[in-house]
Write a structure and sequence with these properties.
With about 130 residues, the protein is α+β, with helices and mostly antiparallel strands. The protein has one domain (about 1-120). It is about 35% helix and about 35% strand. It contains four helices and eight strands. The protein has helices spanning about 1-15, 20-25, 85-90, 95-105, and strands at about 25-35, 40, 45-50, 50-55, 60-65, 75-80, 110-115, 115-120. The strands form two sheets. The chain has a five-stranded antiparallel β-sheet with strand order 3-2-5-6-7, with no helix packed on it. It has a three-stranded mixed β-sheet with strand order 4-1-8, with no helix packed on it. A hairpin with a 4-residue loop joins β2 and β3 (about 45-50). The longest helix has 15 residues, at about 1-15.
């Protein structure tokens, strides 16, 4: 009886969740480093100092602005692209369609790139 209950629990977990949602969630951490350090990094919602990390939603593109007094500002686009975890849903076709739906709704079917941003700031000329 315990084996049947365990099997039912495993099947429920496969049906009720999406592969990407379980593996990496709706948000992604993007590391940002600058040369020189101590620049201000912002995605319009969160601001941190470099080197730093931003936690961004996977389901859309983001523009990261990097500023430091005496240097020209830089803008970096972080794009959302389809995650390889989606193909796990496709592999399990029937249950996978439900999982893919969960991933699509949660935004977890995407990944952000670049995952690491390195920017060299250029001094303003006077």
């Amino acid at each position: 009886m315990k084996i049947v209950n365990l099997l039912m629990l495993v099947v429920y977990c496969v049906v009720a969740t999406g592969c990407a949602t379980v593996i990496h969630g709706r948000k992604q951490e993007i590391a940002v480093a600058t040369n020189p350090p101590d620049a201000t990094i912002s995605d319009g919602k969160t601001t941190v100092q470099s080197p730093g990390k931003l936690i961004l939603d996977r389901n859309k593109d983001h523009m990261i602005t990097i500023t430091k007094p005496g240097f020209y500002p830089e803008t970096v686009r972080v794009s959302h692209v389809i995650s390889g975890a989606v193909f796990g849903n496709i592999a399990f076709w029937t249950f996978g369609l439900i999982g893919w739906g969960v991933d699509a709704i949660s935004g977890a079917q995407w990944r952000l790139e670049p995952e690491t941003v390195n920017v060299t700031l250029h001094p303003e000329t006077k």
